[in-house]
Amino acid sequence: MIRWVLRSLLVAYVSVSAALFVVGGWDLGDNRKQTLSLIVISIALLNMFIVPILKVVGLPSEGLSFIFLSFVLTLVTVYILPMFLLSFKIVEADLAQLRIFGYVLPSKHLEPTMTAVYSALVVSLTYHFIEWLFGKR
């Protein structure tokens, strides 16, 4: 049980850090450590209880539809967090130019809503990729 909670917190921290690195656009305020820790706890709690709740409701808990539902719930969580954490704000961001397998993706300016969408996508995909790497035991 404790191992499950610690693993979820660690994976949530890595996924939130990846979103901050790739997308940015999160203003954590003056007390950065406290705000970041509360965001990590909320993402970890969401991802710890998403599978049991989806199984009870009868929604898919595996596959692409599960990843989409997880992305939507992460987006809702990221969008609601500034209402509860007054020091946390979603601000405009600029995506840097990316080169993937020789293809160049141009840089893009994001509004706060699109910043939340891209951040939630990075958090969700990173979290579930790392969970997939851990495998089921």
Task: Kindly describe this structure.
This protein is mainly alpha-helical. It has four helices and six strands; from the N terminus they run αβααβββββα. It has helices at 2-22, 32-57, 63-84, 112-134; strands at residues 26-27, 89-90, 93-95, 98-100, 103-105, 108-110. The strands form three sheets. Strands 1-2 form a two-stranded antiparallel sheet. Helix 1 (2-22) packs across helix 2 (32-57), helix 1 (2-22) crosses helix 4 and helix 3 packs across helix 4 (112-134). The longest helix is centred in the first third of the chain and has 26 residues, at 32-57. The model has no long low-confidence stretch (mean pLDDT 89).
Keywords:
137 residues, mainly alpha, 4 helices
What's the alpha carbon Rg, rounded to whole Å? Answer: 15 Å
Strand content: 5-15%
Rounded mean pLDDT score: 89
Sheet with the most strands: spatial strand order: 1-2
pLDDT under 50 segments (min length 5)?
none
Provide the domain count. Answer: 1
Estimated structural class: mainly alpha
Q: Counting H and I runs of at least 4 residues, what is the number of helices?
A: 4
Overall morphology? globular
Q: Gap between N and C termini, in Å? A: 13 Å
List SSEs in N-to-C order: HEHHEEEEEH
Helix residue percentage: 55-70%
Task: Tell me the number of strands.
Answer: 6
Biggest β-sheet description: 2 strands, antiparallel
